[in-house]
């Protein structure tokens, strides 16, 4: 872990409520302590001041009093002296005078304060003593000097006052008076609350009250408050006025605080309580409310996180909106955030639900093609229950298709493509059959523009794919025998010619026509005829080499392509083999048929060197073989050498005559509107009756007319007959659309558009009344050239129909490029509508036409069941024997009349 990450560790969580409580408590405690300290401080200041004041007052009192007392005593001593002197007792001589004095003193009651006195002469000799203490003092000199005397026996203190005294004859003496300072004396001096003590040399000699002591500490006397006694005392001292050796008066004033501490602290305490109450009331309630509001925001977020309902969260958040402040704003902002998140959530859910409904699977892949996300459609599509996420998409693909995906991815990563499509097979989906999906991938980019992978939509196209496969198979194969059809055959011939040119080998093309096959059809029915054709095809195929191709040309005609022949004898061998094989009859449901056939062969490079000529030479050889009495094979080389195909030349001659003499007739076959069941038009079909050959099929004489170069004349005759008929019908009130067949050569002839337009105008009709039918093979196989002509016709307003749709099919995509209006579903499909595969084919074609916005015509409708089916499938127009065969103009008009009557 990086240091940044470590730094980002969230701080220890302490709830707001707790923080508020702690802070409030802290402030309260600090404030209480502060107020208390300030209170104590002012208490002590005040008390100190009181003590100092009391001490000063008391001491001053005694400083004032003591000198007065002492002076009183001095005055008293003077008065005593004066009295003694006035008595003149001492002026007499002898010792009697002392007795007289003694008596006098004893008589004087007032003498109590000074119970002891001494009289000294000028030489300091004691002349007289009075009182017990005086009697014990031997030498009065030190006393007199000190002014103080401490009786050694009784420890009593005396003030010694000296005054001169006239001794008569003895001259000037001294009177010494001793004033005792005892407890009583101090008691008298003491004022209320004050105790006094006398202290001399560390000893207390008197006290105003018994039991008193001086307070001192290690160093001596303590001045100021002595609080360790009860009651506390303010102590001070004062020396007795006079000499330096005087005793010390200790003053102890009892100190009773006028304002004791508890009482003093009452006010701060009260202040604390008051402030606390104010804080709690003012700040505390606000704080609690604010915290609750903030908590409600947190709770709302938690609620939203749990249930995802903004409405519930809003209810929980109600307290936050109790005042219009920032908390309110934060709440609002959060709410709108939740609402927008919620809206986006719902939107996303809707998208996901929609995604789940889709048939398509939506995948998200990373850069390595690993599935990151898969919509529910994936499981349906892949038909697998195992988890797809985390596995490469390639694992689900057919091994052969993995490369396709890889190539697409490579193009993405190289930046060559931003999106791409691919048709892929899924593997392992069970069901045996490959499952085809169409995948569309788009590059997915990250925010920084780099490729983050791709997003893909996968659609099941198996059905479409199978349809396509089926369509393209059917397009190239004959429906009945499943043999290659003309289109595929021509393709194979081309390839064979290419190869033969390189290998210098020969190619054989054999036209095979069953003899008298029409008889089988007529006598036993189409079904039996069809079965016989299938049996014939199967037997011939059994004889072929692997490179050979047997194709159905149409009806009872087959073409056998023999590539890589070394000589003409090779062909002979093959033909002999086939003839040999059909000596045995073909069994069909109890009936045995002996099949005989005529064969016409053309060889490359001897007879011709292009496909078209080769085919027509082989056809001529066949014609020759038939003309020779059938059941034989003819090589073109042989007949060319013999007679030049005289029979065919004869028929061509007859056709040329018929066209020149305008004996080609236009017949009409009704086109029925599927919705109304009414005839809305007619297909114009050419008919030729030859005096010798009878009715010759247009399938024979139209190609012949093209070869002879008379097709334009022939076409014009048909066209004019149709216009004349159309004009007449119009006059009678029948607005019929005329569908005219246009062959390749007609289409490519110059000025056709102008010519058609001019003739239309002469007959009072417009291009919109005409449908030009171009067979699919012509329209699509040479689309580039055809398109030009078709567009010109389309621009003029002609309707264009793609005829025989489904037989010449090569590429559906080319259909887009043609200006077609209609699709004519080929007869071969309509025939097979009662089989499931045929039904799905017709369905596919109708869907395709719908997608391309083309109308559909079903031709060859021979029965009511088929007609009903087709109508149900949504075909627009119907044509066929079920409604009416092609008819001469006369018959057609009769049919119309009958139709109108019914
Ligand atoms: P097509 O254009 O496919 O014409 C339809 C063919 O189907 C006609 O054959 C018609 O007689 C036949 N038919 C109609 N209804 C049914 C049905 O219910 N069952 C069956 N089995 N057949 C039905 P037809 O008249 O022999 O014409 C053959 C082809 O000759 C035409 O095929 C068309 O390609 C060509 N053709 C005919 N008249 C002309 C023409 O005036 N000009 C050109 N250029 N070609 C023509
Ligand atoms: Ca036609
Ligand atoms: Ca047709």
Write structural notes for this entry.
The strands form 7 sheets. Strands 25-26-28-29-30-31-32-33 form an 8-stranded mixed β-barrel, surrounded by 5 helices. A 5-stranded antiparallel β-sheet has the order 2-1-5-4-3. By secondary structure, the protein is an alpha+beta fold. Helices cover 49% and strands 22% of the residues. Strand 6 and strand 7 form a beta hairpin. The protein has 30 helices and 33 strands. The longest helix is centred in the N-terminal third of the chain and has 72 residues. Helix 7 packs antiparallel against helix 8. The structure holds ligand C2E and calcium ion (2 copies). The site of ligand C2E has 23 residues, from strand 26, helix 20, helix 21 and strand 30.
Question: Keyphrases for this structure?
Answer:
single chain, 902 residues, alpha+beta, eight-stranded mixed barrel, five-stranded antiparallel sheet, 30 helices, rod-shaped, binds ligand C2E, binds calcium ion
Summary, kept brief:
With 902 residues, the chain is an alpha+beta fold. The protein is built from 30 helices and 33 strands. The structure holds ligand C2E and calcium ion (2 copies).
Considering DSSP H and I runs of 4 or more, what fraction of the residues is helical?
40-55%
In total, how many beta strands? 33
Percent strand equals 15-25%
* Alpha-carbon distance between the two ends: 97 Å
Tell me about the biggest sheet?
8 strands, mixed, barrel
Taking all residues together, what is the mean pLDDT?
87
Total number of helices: 30
Pick out the low-confidence regions.
Answer: 1-6
Bound molecules: ligand C2E, calcium ion
The chain-level structural class is: alpha+beta
Radius of gyration: 74 Å
User: What topology, given as strand order, has the largest sheet?
Assistant: 25-26-28-29-30-31-32-33
Shape: rod-shaped
């Amino acid at each position: 872990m990086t240091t940044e990450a470590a730094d980002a560790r969230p701080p220890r969580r302490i709830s707001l409520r707790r923080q508020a409580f702690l802070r409030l408590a802290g402030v309260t405690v600090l404030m209480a302590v502060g107020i208390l300290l300030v209170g104590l401080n002012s208490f002590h200041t005040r008390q100190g001041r009181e003590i100092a004041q009391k001490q000063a007052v008391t001491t001053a009192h005694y400083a004032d009093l003591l000198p007065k007392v002492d002076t009183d005593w001095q005055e008293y001593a003077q008065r005593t002296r004066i009295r003694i002197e006035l008595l003149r007792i001492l002026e007499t001589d002898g010792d009697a005078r002392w007795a007289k004095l003694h008596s006098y003193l004893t008589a004087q009651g007032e003498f109590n304060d000074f119970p002891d006195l001494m009289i000294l002469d000028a030489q300091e000799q004691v002349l007289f003593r009075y009182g017990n203490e005086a009697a014990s003092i031997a030498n009065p000199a030190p006393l007199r000097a000190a002014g103080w005397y401490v009786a050694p026996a009784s420890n009593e203190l005396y003030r010694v006052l000296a005054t001169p005294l006239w001794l008569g004859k003895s001259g000037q003496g001294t009177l010494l008076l001793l004033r005792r300072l005892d407890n009583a004396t101090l008691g008298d001096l003491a004022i209320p609350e004050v105790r006094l003590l006398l202290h001399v040399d560390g000893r207390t000699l008197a006290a105003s009250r018994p039991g008193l002591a001086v307070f001192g500490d290690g160093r001596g006397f303590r001045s100021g408050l002595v609080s360790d006694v009860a009651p506390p005392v303010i102590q001070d001292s004062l020396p007795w006025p006079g000499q330096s050796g005087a005793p010390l008066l200790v003053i102890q004033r009892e100190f009773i605080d006028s304002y004791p501490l508890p009482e003093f602290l009452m006010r701060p305490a009260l202040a604390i309580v008051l402030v606390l109450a104010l804080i709690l009331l003012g700040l505390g309630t606000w704080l609690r409310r604010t915290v609750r509001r903030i908590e409600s925001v947190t709770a709302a977020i938690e609620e939203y996180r749990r249930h995802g309902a903004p409405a519930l969260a809003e209810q929980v958040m109600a307290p936050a909106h109790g005042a219009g402040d920032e908390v309110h704003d934060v709440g609002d902002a959060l709410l709108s955030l939740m609402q927008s998140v919620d809206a986006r959530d719902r939107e996303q859910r809707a998208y996901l639900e929609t995604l789940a409904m889709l048939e398509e699977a939506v995948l998200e892949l990373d850069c390595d093609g690993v599935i990151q996300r898969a919509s529910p459609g994936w499981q349906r599509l892949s038909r697998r229950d195992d988890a797809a996420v985390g596995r490469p998409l390639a694992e689900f693909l057919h091994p052969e298709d993995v490369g396709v995906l890889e190539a697409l991815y490579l193009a993405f990563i190289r930046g060559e493509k931003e999106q791409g499509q691919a048709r892929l097979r899924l593997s392992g989906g069970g069901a045996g059959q490959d499952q085809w999906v169409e995948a569309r991938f788009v590059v997915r980019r990250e925010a920084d523009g780099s490729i983050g992978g791709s997003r893909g939509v996968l659609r099941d196209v198996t059905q479409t794919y199978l349809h396509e496969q089926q369509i393209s198979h059917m397009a190239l194969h004959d429906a009945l025998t499943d043999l290659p059809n003309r289109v595929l055959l021509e393709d194979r011939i081309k390839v064979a010619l290419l190869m033969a040119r390189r290998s210098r080998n020969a190619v054989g093309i054999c036209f095979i026509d069953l003899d008298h096959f029409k008889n089988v059809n007529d006598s036993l029915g189409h079904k039996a005829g069809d079965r016989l054709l299938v049996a014939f095809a199967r037997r011939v195929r059994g004889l072929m080499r692997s490179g050979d191709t047997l194709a159905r040309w149409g009806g009872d005609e087959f073409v056998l392509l023999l590539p890589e022949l070394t000589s003409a004898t090779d062909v002979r061998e093959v033909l002999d083999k086939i003839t040999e094989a059909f000596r045995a009859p073909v069994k069909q449901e109890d009936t045995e048929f002996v099949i005989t056939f005529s064969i016409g062969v053309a060889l490359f490079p001897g007879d011709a060197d292009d496909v078209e000529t080769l085919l027509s030479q082989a056809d001529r050889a066949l014609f020759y073989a038939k003309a020779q009495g059938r059941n034989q094979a003819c090589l073109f080389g042989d007949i060319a050498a013999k007679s030049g195909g005289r029979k065919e030349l004869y028929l061509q001659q007859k056709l040329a005559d018929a066209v020149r003499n305008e004996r080609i007739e236009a017949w009409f076959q009704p086109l029925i509107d599927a919705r109304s069941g009414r005839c809305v038009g007619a297909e114009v079909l050419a008919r030729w009756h030859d005096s010798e050959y009878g009715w010759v099929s247009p399938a024979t004489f139209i190609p012949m007319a093209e070869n002879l170069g008379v097709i334009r004349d022939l076409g014009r005759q048909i066209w004019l007959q149709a216009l004349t008929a159309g004009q007449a019908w119009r006059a009678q009130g029948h607005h019929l659309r005329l569908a005219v067949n246009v062959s390749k050569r007609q289409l490519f002839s110059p000025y056709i558009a102008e010519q058609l337009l001019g003739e239309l105008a002469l007959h009072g009709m417009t291009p919109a009344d005409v449908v030009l039918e171009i067979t699919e093979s012509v329209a699509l196989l040479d689309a580039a050239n055809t398109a030009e002509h078709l567009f010109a016709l389309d621009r003029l307003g002609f309707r264009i129909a793609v005829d025989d749709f489904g037989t010449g099919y090569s590429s559906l995509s080319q259909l887009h490029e043609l200006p077609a209006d209609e699709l004519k579903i080929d007869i071969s499909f309509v025939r097979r509508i009662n089989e499931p595969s045929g039904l799905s084919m017709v369905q596919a074609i109708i869907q395709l036409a719908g997608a391309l916005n083309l109308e559909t015509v079903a031709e060859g409708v021979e029965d009511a069941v088929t007609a009903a089916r087709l109508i149900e499938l949504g075909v627009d127009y119907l044509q066929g024997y079920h409604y009416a065969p092609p008819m001469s103009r006369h018959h057609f008009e009769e049919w119309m009349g009958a139709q109108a009557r019914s």
